[in-house]
Design brief:
heterodimer, A: alpha/beta, Rossmann fold, B: alpha/beta, 2 domains, 6-stranded mixed β-sheet
């Protein structure tokens, strides 16, 4: 069974700034890491590989330093990794990203199963996975909590509002994997060291031959015009310090204030 | 008699300990401690907190400094459990070469002289009994004591500050010092980010890796560099292994338990201040909370584990962090007077601030309150670096 996992490198903490002009995240100084639910997707892929055999291939679209995320995926046990990088891929919207990913999957595939995290911790649209599925013409289940192979089909237990729904799809298919749906595999020192030495192949638009008018900044159909804080989010977190007695007193005060509201 | 007004910048273990020792001069000192974040949130929060009776971190020449630090924290912990975060795991210091063997043996003799246990073990089976993960083949022996372990620098800093407050001192957290006011060659006051002016008789800079920046505020070139301290949390293949993982010291790295994980860090002695890979002058405010470590470090770690502690070579990598140690050229702290009158330093603690802060602060407090110096202050004075 050939499994592909689409992953993204995201800033490690919430401590990122938004460019007031472009409304894009400023990533230069931020420490980057693998998007948390992508770790769940990789882990789910590795479990399926263990069950059915085959290979796990990870792909990411991003700047050259997104290699770091791919190396983490390799250290977790993935078999191969591809970096999709080209200036003309940058600045796109979710559809532009999905088009690049679809082309890369076609170039490196075919795959029996494509997985992705259900949403990224920075953009949080949850759109890219289903868009890729649509472009590939594959059935797709989102927010998967559990994935199992049953008689050549993929059985997915997915979260839908407050209930769980079971979906069975024939292969090839796609699923986006929910955050916290499994315990991500940890890379070991040994595997990470090996992964750090792997030469990661790159695909540019020379390989994928996409029309540059439909990807990247020129192809973006959606434009972020402003970013607004959610109502109520102006409330600041307060760190309570002092002796246990002082902290307890302050908690009581805060609870009383909240009660009066 | 008018109280001496003392302003302390930085609430890491340096500033916290100094504020406490000054507060012991009851009724004589008016102390204000300024910390731009929270108490013990800087380098101190990323520290391993080991204060071991014998190891290579601080030369045996400064044995009394080590012992005083250890016993201060031990008493703190006895007074209120958890207040120093003591985990008595014992320490195993490994000697791959004769040079380390000699030093460890001297350390054991000093520890025993102070009434603690300590033995130098050459029986490989016994070493493996203490730490089954180890490969004893390529070592000469190891020093072992069950009496020490590691502490929690942030807990200690908070305990010192709590005691200082109980003695009448003031702490201002979330308060950044942004200006230091000089009259001629004398520092007389400082300003905080909200524009408030505070007048002092003495100002002590305890900002560790930030000291270059605070020094600039007063026109002083504080000669410290940053060395990278890269640390990893490992999840060993066997959970709850049925033995206590001691503080483990090798010349190139050290390890200790952290809950069910193992904290592992590269030793600072292997660093060269002129090697841009390990050292430089950076901005500590840009340090990420986790991550930021260099890829080469994984390789280093693997090589070390593979040959010395194979039981950990297949550990999971849980998380990592990068931190800066503040180091003068000779890797010893800078304590006391500077060319700017009434502007003192207690910085440059490098990789030993937890060990050194109590003895240094005790002596520096006496110097500030009585003008009496000590041998330690003489050796660690700023003027040695001006030569
Ligand atoms: C990974 C690692 C392991 C270590 N292990 C050990 C060990 O096992 N044993 C040991 O003894 N030592 C160890 N050390 C060293 C020890 O942690 C440091 O020497 C010690 O914590 C330094 O304390 P400090 O108070 O000088 O600096 P910091 O803890 O960095 O405190 C400086 C404080 O100043 C504040 N500050 C800066 N600028 C301003 C301003 N303008 N206004 C107000 N506040 C300001 C900062 O917010 C910060 O809290 C280790 C260090 C690291 C990084």
């Amino acid at each position: 069974m050939k499994i592909a996992v689409l992953i993204k490198q995201v800033p490690a903490s919430n401590d990122v700034t938004v460019d007031p002009q472009t409304h894009c995240l400023i990533r230069e100084n931020a420490e980057m890491t693998v998007n948390p639910s992508d770790l769940n997707a990789i882990t789910a892929a590795l479990a399926l590989k263990q069950q059915a055999g085959g290979t796990v291939t990870v792909l990411t679209m991003g700047p050259p330093d997104a290699n770091k995320a791919l190396r983490t995926a390799l250290a977790m046990g993935s078999d191969e990794a591809w970096l999709l990088t080209d200036r003309c891929f940058g600045g796109g919207d979710t559809l532009g990203t999905a088009k690049v990913l679809k082309a890369a999957l076609a170039h490196t595939g075919p795959y029996d199963l494509v997985l992705a995290g259900d949403a990224s911790s920075d953009g949080a649209t949850g759109q890219v996975g289903p868009m890729v599925a649509e472009l590939l013409g594959l059935p797709c289940a989102t927010d998967a909590r559990k994935l199992e192979l049953e008689g050549g089909k993929l059985s997915v237990l997915r979260q839908w509002k407050i209930q769980k729904v079971r979906v069975r799809m024939s292969l090839p298919c796609m699923a986006t994997v929910g955050l916290g749906s499994n315990q991500p595999v940890l890379p070991t020192i040994r595997s990470q060291m090996k992964a750090n030495k792997v030469e990661i192949p790159t695909l540019t638009n020379q390989d994928l031959s996409l029309d540059t008018a439909v990807i990247g900044m020129p192809g973006a159909k959606s434009l972020v015009t402003d970013t607004l804080a959610r109502e109520g989010s102006h409330r600041k977190a307060e760190m309570l310090t002092g002796t246990p007695e002082e902290i307890a007193k302050r908690i009581k005060e805060l609870m009383d204030e909240e009660g009066e509201r | 008699m008018a109280k001496k007004k003392i302003g302390i910048i930085g609430g890491g273990i340096s500033g916290a300990a100094l504020s406490y020792y000054l507060s012991l001069y009851t009724g004589e000192a008016e102390i204000v401690l300024f910390e731009k974040g929270r108490i013990g949130c800087g380098t101190t929060a990323k520290s391993a907190g080991t204060v071991c009776l014998f190891d290579d971190s601080l030369n045996n020449r400064y044995w009394d400094v080590r012992l005083y630090g250890f016993e201060t924290y031990l008493k703190m912990e006895q007074e209120e459990k958890g207040s120093a975060g003591f985990d008595q795991t014992g320490t195993l210091v490994v000697a791959p070469h004769e040079q380390e063997e000699q030093r460890i043996k001297a350390g054991i003799a000093l520890a025993k002289a102070a009434g603690y246990s300590g033995e130098y073990i050459t029986d490989k089976a016994r070493i493996k009994e203490i730490l089954p993960d180890i490969n004893p083949d390529n070592i000469l022996g190891a020093g072992y004591t069950k009496d020490d372990g590691y502490f929690d620098g942030t807990m200690i800093s908070n305990t010192f500050v709590k005691k200082m407050q109980a003695n009448g001192g003031t702490v201002k957290i979330g308060t950044e010092v942004t200006e230091i006011i000089r009259e001629g060659d004398t520092a007389v006051a400082l300003k905080t980010a909200d524009g408030t002016r505070w007048d002092f008789d003495v100002i002590v800079d305890c900002t560790g890796p930030w000291s270059r920046f605070t020094g600039e505020l007063v026109g002083l070139d504080v000669p410290i560099w940053h060395t990278k301290a890269e640390a990893f949390f490992l999840c060993p293949p066997t959970k709850r292994p049925g033995y206590v993982f001691p503080v483990l010291k090798y010349p190139a790295f050290y390890a200790l338990r952290a809950g069910e994980n193992v904290f592992i860090c590269k030793s600072h002695l292997s660093m060269n201040l002129d090697d841009p890979m390990h050292a430089g002058q950076w901005d500590p405010d840009k340090l990420p909370q986790t991550g930021g470590t260099d890829d080469y470090f994984i390789e280093f770690l693997f090589e070390q584990m593979d040959s010395f502690v194979p039981g950990l070579a297949d550990s999971g990598l849980v998380s990592s962090w990068l931190s800066y140690r503040a180091e003068p050229r000779d890797f010893l702290p800078i304590v006391g007077e500077t060319p700017v009158k009434n502007y003192l330093l207690a910085t440059g603690y490098g990789g030993n601030g937890v060990i050194e802060a109590p003895a240094v602060s005790r002596d520096l407090a006496k110097f500030i309150m009585r003008g009496e110096s000590t041998m330690l202050l003489e050796e660690w004075a700023f003027k040695r670096l001006l030569k």
